[in-house]
Design a protein that fits this description.
Helices cover 57% and strands 0% of the residues. The protein has 5 helices and no strands. The radius of gyration is 17 Å and the shape is globular. The termini are far apart.
Length: 102
């Protein structure tokens, strides 16, 4: 009986765990280079789809704070809050790598 209850609980929890995070309000400027779905739109821009959440979060903070030196990224991020950076990292980490969007 316990196994049946555990299985039922897991089945009801799966849709919530698999839900894509909401599209970040600040996605537009990022999407110009990295694509809305995380597949690069321009040569030289890395694909972000499916990257590790912690990696993306920390990389974005480092660009914002100047610990990573890339003038374009520093200008694109600007004075973004931690909440906005987290939303972007969650969005891109939840995307499935694939073909660039046209």
């Amino acid at each position: 009986m316990r196994t049946v209850l555990t299985a039922a609980f897991l089945l009801t929890a799966l849709p919530a765990m698999a839900a894509t995070p909401p599209k970040p309000a600040r996605l537009g400027l990022c999407a110009a280079c990295h694509g809305e779905t995380g597949m690069a739109q321009i040569p030289g821009a890395p694909n972000l789809a499916g990257q590790k959440l912690d990696y993306l979060r920390e990389a974005l903070r480092q660009y914002r704070d100047g610990r990573r030196t890339a003038p374009l990224m520093k200008a694109a991020i600007g004075p973004v809050s931690d909440a906005d950076l987290d939303a972007l990292a969650q969005w891109y980490s939840a995307q499935t790598p694939g073909q660039p969007t046209p």
